Amino acid sequence: MRPLINRLFGKRKSSEAQELFFSPSIKEIRKQLEQGIFAQDDSIVYRTFFTAEPHGRECLIVYPEAMTSNDFVSEFVVKPLSEEVLEPGLRGSALAAHLMEHVLPISAVKEVSRLRDAVDDILTGDAALFVDGCASAFILPSKSVTIRLPTEPSAESVVRGPREAFCESLAVNITLVRRRIRTPMLKFSYMQLGRQTQTKVAIAHIEGIAAPAIVEEVHQRLSEIEIDGIIDSGYIEELIQDAPLSPFKTIGHTERPDIVAARLLEGRVAILVDGTPVALTMPFLFVESLQANEDYFKHFAIASVDRLIRYICLFLSTSTPAIYLALVAYHPILIPTQLALSISASRQGVPFPAVIEVFMMGLIFEIMREGGVRLPGPIGQALSIVGAIVLGDAAVQAQIVSAPMIIVVAITAISGFAVPKIYGVMVLLRAFFSLCAGLLGLYGYFVGVIAVTIHLMSLRSFGVPYMVNYTDFDPQNIKDTAMRVPWWHMRLRPRLLAARNPQRLREDGER
Amino acid sequence: MRRPAARLLLLLFCLLLSGCWDYIEVETLTFVIGAGVDITPENHFKLSVETFEVRGGDQTNITPYVASATGITIFNALRNLTNTTGKQMFFGHSQAIVFSEEFARKGVGEVVGFMQRDAGVRTNMWLLVAKDASAEEVFKADYPLSPSVGLYLNRVMDVQERNPTFIPMQIWEFSRALNEEGMAAILPTITLIEQDDKKIPMVEGTAVFDSDRMIGWLDVQDTRILGYLLTRRITGLLVTEPEFRGETKPVVAEVRASQVKINPKWENDQLSMEIVVRLFLDLHELGFEVFDYSQTDLKRFLEEAFARQMKSDIEHLLNTVQKDLKLDIIGFGSMTKKKVPQAWRKLGGKKWKSEFPQIPVMVHVSALITETGILAKPITARY
C-alpha cells in the first residue's frame, strides 16, 4: 500500500515541497504552509502561541476551520502547553517524548516526521501542533466533522431484520460490521484511492474463510486504480469489475451492514469506502440478484415461495411485452380464441401497430419512473397519479393505446419492482427481447433469450462463474437458489468462495 | 470469415432464412370461427364462414356474422369471400367445418385435402355433416348459451362423453380414416331442431362414408354403440326396461368402468370376430318400487337385463352395418390386418368389401353392478 501511495505522489511535481522534512523554525514551517502548500486557502487556521515563561517557546497549531473542535484544541492543547515550562536544553526527540508523555493529555496523539503526512492529516480535520525545536509534528485527534448517523435503510428495507444502514463515515461503517463479527479473523486493510480526493477505502475479509486468491485479486485490482477522485463506491465498482461492458453487475452493493456480515461469512470480500453509505461485496453471482436478506430470517418455506415469486417476476418483467408482441403480431393462432377476439376488439381503431405501441408504452413508463425517482416524495406521488390515471385511462378512452397494452405495461412494472436489485438490467433486457420479438416473433424472442443466456454463462466474477448455481448439479450449490433450504441443511459454505474452510455448521448437522 | 461484418451477415442469414413468419396486425384479421361448405345448383362451391364482427372503443362489442361466397374451388370461394368482406380470413381459430349432405354425397376429399395442405388451417378442427339443412343454415341458426354456433360446436364436442350420441372427428382423424385400409370413415351429423320458434343446432347421429363420399346415416342408438366399439370404452348412461313380476319399467345405470375387446379369429380358413364386453355399473334410477337391491338374486337379475340389452344393441348395430350399409365402419378389416395378417392376405384388399357382410360376429356381454349410489333400498311411499 505504501509503495502505491508513494508512486502516486511521485508522479506529482508539486509534491517535492511536501516531501521536505520539517525545518526546525516555526516561522519557516508557517511560511511553507501558508504561502506554499495552503496558499490562497483561507479555510486553514494558523494559531501561534508561546509556552510559559521564562523560556517561552513558539508553538504553532494548524487546523482546518470548522472541521476541528475549538474547545478541544484550547482545553487540551493550548492550555496545557502554555502553562508548561520547557527547559531550553530540551530539544529534538527528547522534547517530543516529553510532550507525548507528560504534556498532552490525549490518548490518540500521533507523531509524524514529514510535512506531507501532517498535511494529509490536517485535511481530514485533525489539528497539527508544531513546537519550536522539535523535528516532528503532533497530530491531535480533534476532528469534529458532522456526519449523518446510521439510519434505517431506504433502498433495502425489510419487514423483519436489523434496521441499520451504513452512513458516510468509514469509521462508523467499520464499527457496524465489526459489531456483527467479533472475531480477530475479521481483517480490515486500508488503502487510499484518488489522487485528489485521497479517499480512504477499507477492504474486509475473514481470514481462514475467504479464498486468499480472491482477496489478493481484490487488492491487486484496487492498487491498479488510477483516478483523480472517488466520490462513491460506484466508481470503484466500475473500475474493478470483470466485465465492465456487460450490463450485468459482477460486484454486489448494499447499504446494509448485516448483508455485508453475511457475505463475509460466506467467504466474500467487502469494500467500504469513506463518504459512501454503500458497501461493495465480491465475488457477486447472479443468484444474489434474486436473494434478499430477509429470506434468511424468515421460515424457509415462506422464503422459498418468495424466491420463486421473484424468479417468476424476473421472467414476467423481462418477457411480458415481448411475448405479447410476438403473439399479437406473429402468432394470433396461439392466443385462446376468446382472448384473441377481445384483443382484436380493443385494438380496433388504435392507430399504431402493436410493435410501436409496445415501445411507446415502455418508454412512457420508464419516463414516469425516472421522473418519479428524481422528484421529491410528494411531487413524485402526483406524478404517478398523472401517469396512472391520465395517461392510462385517457389513452385507452381516446383509443391511442389498447387496453391489453396497459395491462402488459402494468404487469411488467409491478413484477419489475419485485426484483429491484437488477431493475436496470431488466429494462435493457425487456427492450432487447421486445426488439427480437418485434423482428422475428416468438422465434426471435427465443433467439434473444438464448443470446442473453450465453452471455450470462460466459461471465465470471473474480474467477467464480457468474451462473455457477444454475449450471452445477452439485446439490450443495443449488440449495440456496430458487428455494432456500433450512439453515441446518446449509452446512457448507459456497464451494468456490470458501474452499479452504467450507464447514458452516458442525458435521452432525446440529444447529 | 475473419471480418466481423461477414460473420454478422452470416448470423443474420441463419436467423432470417430459417423459418416462415410474417408480421401481421391482429385487428386486420377476421377470425373464422366455423365454416360451412354447400354446393350450388351450378355445381360451384359455396363457402359460408361464421366470423365475429368486432367493435372496439369504450365498450367492446363482439357479435357473430355469417358471410358467404361462391367459387369453382374451395380456395377460389375463400378468396372471393375476402373480396366481399375486405378483410383477410384467418382460419387459425376455426373450430368446425360443416359439409352439407349434398356436398358430402359428392365427395369431401378435395376440401379435406385443401384443409390439410394449407399452413394456416389447424388440423384439429371438427368436421360435421349437416342433415336436413344446408351448411349455411346451420351457422345462421340460433345459439342459446353460446357466443356463436362455431363455439357451440367446440363445446359440445368437449362434453360428448357425458352423452355419447355422436362420435367427434377432427380433420386429421378423418383423413387418417380415409387413408386406412379396412376401415370406412364416418362423421358426426348436425341437424336443426325447432324450439320456441327458434332453430337450434343439435349434434347427434353419424354420416357414413364410402371412400370420401357419404352414402348413409346411422341413428343415435347405433351411433352410441359404434362409439363404444371404436373407442373400446363405454361411457354415459345405459337404459334398460326389464320385465319384473309382470311390470316393465326403465332402469338406468351409469357406466363406471368397462372393458371392450374385439378379437378377429382365424380358424379353418374361416374368419370370425368376437366382441367381448364387460360392464361395471353404477345404479342410478330404479323404476321398481318393490325392488330390494340388497338381495343377490335381484341384483343378478338386473345385471343380466343390462347385459342382454347391450348385447342386443350391439347386434342391432352389426345388422345395420353388415346388412344395410355393407361398410366396415367398425374397422374389423384393419384389426384383422394387424392381428391375423394371413387372413387379411386371403380376404383383404379389394375383396374385403364383399367379404365384410358375411363375417360372423359373436357377442359376449357381462355386467356387474358395483355401486348403487347412497341408497341400498328404494324409497317406498307408505301411504
List the helices and strands and how they pair.
The complex is a heterodimer of chains A (511) and B (383).
Chain A (H helix, E strand, L loop, with lengths): L1 H9 L4 H5 L6 H12 L6 E7 L7 E7 L5 H14 L8 H12 L6 E3 L2 H10 L2 E5 L5 E4 L29 H9 L7 E8 L5 E8 L5 H12 L9 H8 L11 E3 L2 H9 L3 E5 L5 E4 L3 H4 L10 H30 L7 H11 L6 H21 L2 H21 L5 H15 L5 H36 L1 E2 L2 E2 L2 H4 L3 H4 L33
Antiparallel strand pairs in A: 1-2, 2-4, 3-5, 4-5, 6-7, 7-9, 8-10, 9-10, 11-12
Chain B lengths: L3 H13 L12 E11 L5 E11 L5 E11 L2 H12 L2 E3 L5 E5 H6 L2 H9 L8 E5 L4 H6 L8 H10 L12 H9 L6 E10 L2 E13 L2 E6 L1 H12 L5 E4 L2 E2 L2 E2 L2 E17 L2 E17 L9 H30 L6 H8 L1 H7 L4 H4 L5 E11 L12
Parallel strand pairs in B: 1-4, 1-5, 5-6, 6-7, 14-15
Antiparallel strand pairs in B: 1-2, 2-3, 7-8, 8-9, 10-13, 11-12, 13-14
Helix pairs in contact in B: 8-9, 10-11
Describe this structure in words.
The complex is a heterodimer of chains A (511) and B (383). In chain A, 48% of the residues lie in helices and 11% in strands. Chain A has 19 helices and twelve strands. Chain A has a five-stranded antiparallel sheet, sandwiched between helices. In chain A, strands 6-7-9-10-8 form a five-stranded antiparallel sheet, with helices on both faces. In chain A, helix 12 (300-329) crosses helix 17 (423-458) and helix 14 (354-374) packs antiparallel against helix 15. The longest helix of chain A is centred in the C-terminal third of the chain and has 36 residues, at 423-458. Chain B starts with a helix and ends in a 12-residue tail after the last strand. The mean pLDDT of chain B is 86. In chain B, strand 13 (251-267) and strand 14 form a beta hairpin. With 383 residues, chain B is an alpha/beta fold. The chains are: A alpha+beta (511), B alpha/beta (383).
